[in-house]
Design goal:
The protein is an alpha+beta fold. The protein has three domains: about 100 residues, no CATH class; about 60 residues, no CATH class; about 100 residues, Alpha-Beta Plaits (2-Layer Sandwich). The chain has nine helices and ten strands. A hairpin with a 3-residue loop joins strand 4 and strand 5. Helix 1 packs antiparallel against helix 2. The chain is elongated.
Length: about 325
């Protein structure tokens, strides 16, 4: 084929026609994708259903990708023999050069099929903690959250001392689902167990301190009566959780320096820091009223050896 007097090797009228058809196919699919996206936004206008919006986008993306691939194969490989040969070369090349990408795409379908997480879930994946804000073919995008004191040495370390957003947006490749466990904070069980530890002196009344802790938990934490019968039945059948484990409870431990009271209670999967803040304020106020102090590591000096002070000047004059 000649182009302004230059002969294009390997390019003829048939290839040019196929190229134009391919470009037209891509444009047509993109236009249809835009129209469907506009229609879904109109239908869901005013509805706060992030899950439905997410799945509608995923379906449109998958259908668009499938139409482009099928159309491309139909245009360029109308001869089955050529298609088989080309598919063999392409498969071999992809298997060698795009191993990570193929694994990430496979991870995407595993995530969708297994329900490991979806948009809006709070997860720990590949060492990153946060809320999933986007799920793509290759990468998952997470709004990072901080780490409580017990988790802070873990990588990657962050400056926020609780499970609240840091403001960083982190992308994680989907292939991590094959190599690392996925921790989901919110998917099926919408509660978390939390603990507050209070050390008090052996001289103080630990029973009164225990009551103060339980009063704060009964006031602010999730109580058994707050959970519907349907949710309780689901917990017992799917997670084998007894109702007694959902009630606030204080555990006592004796140490060399103080009595350690640890209260265990449940909260909703989001907002645990606000709940613990309210409880801590009430606990401090009630401890002050009861005259109970928070114990700390102290040292008591019980005796000293005799100390003799010698004035060096007087000793020299005496000699």
């Amino acid at each position: 084929m000649d182009f302004f007097g230059v002969r294009l090797v390997g390019f003829n009228g048939d290839n040019g026609r196929k190229l134009i058809l391919t470009v037209g196919l891509i444009v047509l699919v993109m236009v249809l994708r835009s129209l469907l996206g506009w229609l879904s936004r109109v239908v869901m206008h005013g509805r706060k259903n992030e899950t439905a919006r997410f799945w509608s986008q995923q379906v449109m993306n998958l259908v668009s990708a499938a139409l482009i691939v099928l159309g491309f194969l139909s245009i360029w490989f109308d001869d089955p023999t050529r298609l088989t040969t080309a598919a063999g070369f392409v498969t071999a090349g992809l298997a060698f050069a795009l191993q990570k990408v193929i694994t990430a795409i496979a991870g995407y379908f595993v995530i969708l099929r297994s329900g490991a997480f979806t948009v809006g879930d709070r997860i720990l994946m590949g060492g990153v903690r946060g809320d999933v804000i986007r799920l793509g073919f290759i990468q998952t995008t997470v709004m990072e959250m901080g780490q409580p004191p017990g988790e802070r040495p873990d990588d990657p370390s962050v400056w926020v001392k609780s499970r609240q957003f840091t403001g960083r947006i982190v992308t994680i490749t989907n292939d991590k689902i094959f190599d690392h466990p996925i921790f989901n904070y919110t998917s099926e069980f919408p509660y978390l167990w939390e603990e507050i530890t209070l050390p008090i002196s052996y001289k103080d009344d630990y029973r009164k301190a225990e009551k103060i802790l339980l009063d704060a938990a009964h006031k602010h934490a999730v109580r058994l009566e707050h959970i519907t019968e349907e949710s309780l039945e689901t917990m017992k059948q799917h997670f084998f959780i007894s109702p007694s484990s959902l009630e606030p409870h204080v555990f006592v431990r004796l140490t060399d320096n103080w009595i350690e009271l640890t209260m265990r209670f449940i909260v909703h999967d989001h907002g645990s820091r606000k709940i613990k803040d309210k409880m801590s304020r009430d606990i401090l106020s009630d401890l002050n009223v009861a005259g109970i102090g928070v114990a700390s590591a102290t040292y008591e000096i019980v005796g000293l050896p005799p100390i003799e002070v010698i004035d060096g000047t007087q000793a020299a004059v005496g000699r």
